[in-house]
Design goal:
The protein has five helices and eight strands. The protein has 186 residues and is of the alpha+beta class. Strands 5-2-1-8 form a four-stranded mixed beta sheet. Strands 4-3-6-7 form a four-stranded antiparallel beta sheet. Helix 2 links the parallel strand 1 and strand 2. This is Phytocyanin domain-containing protein.
C-alpha cells in the first residue's frame, strides 16, 4: 500500500511538471545567413544584440564542412583571433552549441584567416555584456577591406524549438513506464 501512495505522489508531481511550460529557443546563428565570412563586418556583432539568450537555448552554426569549422575560444584569443588551443572544435557543418550556463561565450571560424575577416561571434547568456561592445568591430573598420560573399545557401528554420516539449513528454512516458514496471513487481 505504501508503494502505491508513493507512486501516486510521483504521478501528481510529474503532472505538475508537465503542466509547467518548458521552453528553449534554437537560434540559427546570423538568422538567414549561414556561418561564414560576413559581407558586413558587423553582422556577428549586431546579431546577438537582437536576441536575449538564456540557459537551455542552443546556437546552430551552419556551414560547408569541407570549407570551414567552428571553434570556441577564450576572450583573449577572440580579441587577437588566435585559433590555437580552442576550448571546443566542431567541423560537421551543423554544429549545435547548447547554452548550459550564464556567461559570455566566444566563437570564431577554425579556418585560417576567417577570424580576421570578422567571422567571429560573442554571445552573452543571462545578461548583456558590455564586453561585447568593447570586442566588436569598431565603426572605423577599413572601408577598403575586401568584401567576401557567403556562397553557402541558407536553410530556413523556425525560431522556437519543440525539443524541450518532447523532452518533457519523454520524461513523463519514461516515468510512467517505471510506475508500470514497479507495479508489475508487486
Amino acid at each position: 500500500m505504501g508503494v502505491m501512495i508513493r507512486l501516486s505522489s510521483l504521478m501528481v508531481l510529474l503532472l505538475i511538471l508537465l503542466g509547467q511550460e518548458v521552453s528553449s529557443t534554437l537560434y540559427k546563428v546570423g538568422d538567414m545567413d549561414s556561418w561564414g565570412i560576413p559581407t558586413d563586418s558587423k553582422v556577428y556583432s549586431k546579431w546577438p544584440k537582437s536576441h536575449s539568450f538564456k540557459i537551455g537555448d542552443s546556437l546552430l552554426f551552419l556551414y560547408p564542412p569541407s570549407e570551414d569549422s567552428l571553434i570556441q575560444v577564450t576572450a583573449s584569443n577572440y580579441k587577437s583571433c588566435n585559433t590555437k588551443d580552442p576550448i571546443l572544435y566542431m567541423n560537421d557543418g551543423n554544429s549545435l552549441f547548447n547554452l548550459t550556463q550564464n556567461g559570455t561565450f566566444y566563437f570564431t571560424s577554425g579556418h585560417s584567416g576567417n577570424c580576421q575577416k570578422y567571422q567571429k561571434l560573442l554571445v552573452s547568456v543571462g545578461t548583456y555584456s558590455a564586453e561585447a561592445d568593447a570586442l566588436s568591430p569598431s565603426s572605423s573598420a577599413d572601408a577598403d577591406a575586401p568584401s567576401y560573399q557567403n556562397v553557402f545557401g541558407s536553410i530556413p528554420l523556425s525560431q522556437k524549438s519543440s525539443s524541450s516539449y518532447i523532452s518533457a513528454f519523454s520524461i513523463v512516458v519514461a516515468s510512467l513506464a517505471c510506475v508500470v514496471f514497479v507495479g508489475a513487481l508487486m
